[in-house]
Amino acid sequence: MPRTKGDHEARRRDVSAAVWKVMATRGFAGLTLRAVATELGATTGLLTHYFPTKQALVEYALELLEQRTTSRPRREAGEGLAAFRAALLDILPLTPASTESNRIWVSSWDAALSDSDLSTAYARKYARSRDRLREQVAAAQELGELPRDDPARIAAAAQSFVLGLVVQALFAPAAFPPERQIALVDGHLADLTARTNSTR
């Protein structure tokens, strides 16, 4: 009896879940066809139908990670500074789910740095994120909530700050629990708004 489209989609969802589980528990270094097959309870031969090479598996894993990242729930925020703050907090590992995603992202950097195409894709991803932050900074400047400095510079500094905080929180979660991460972001924003107030 031939497999239906529904069967194929169900199998693909199973494969996606297995790929995600391997990334979450072993990181990108442990992402192999054999590991995914074991998690799936299948043979590597079956997986080659989906991923003929390790590169194809890595590319799919990164695509899956991007999909999960962009589709996750976001904090509700207003506009201006509140929206900028919410966007920064959404990057941080403040919940078990966001911690898992961030662990996978950080473990994927090695794969991206060793592949020129992936490096280019990652550079574009972080540039898009900076562009979104820049737009929020510009909106906050229009409301008089942030200083009239170059919004691209403020966005780049904030992105660099939170990505560094992500790494510290992943390696030392006891030293950087969620409440401290939030306090550090609020301190960073307070420094910015203090500059706004000093120029009035």
- Rounded mean pLDDT is 88
Q: Structural class, judged by helices and strands?
A: mainly alpha
Write down the Rg: 20 Å
Q: Describe the sheet with the most strands.
A: none
Residue stretches low in confidence (pLDDT < 50, at least 5 long) are none
Order of helices and strands: HHHHHHHHH
* Helix-residue proportion: over 70%
Tally of separate helices: 9
Can you tell me the overall shape? elongated
Outline:
This protein has 200 residues and is mostly helical.
Write structural notes for this entry.
The protein is mainly α. Helices cover 75% and strands 0% of the residues. The protein is built from nine helices and no strands. It has helices spanning 5-26, 33-40, 44-47, 54-71, 81-91, 96-113, 116-142, 151-171, 178-198. The protein is elongated and about 65 Å long. The termini are far apart. The model has no long low-confidence stretch (mean pLDDT 88).
Helices and strands in order:
Layout: H1 5-26, H2 33-40, H3 44-47, H4 54-71, H5 81-91, H6 96-113, H7 116-142, H8 151-171, H9 178-198
Helix pairs in contact: 1-2, 4-6, 5-7, 7-8, 8-9
List keywords for this structure.
mainly alpha, elongated, 75% helix
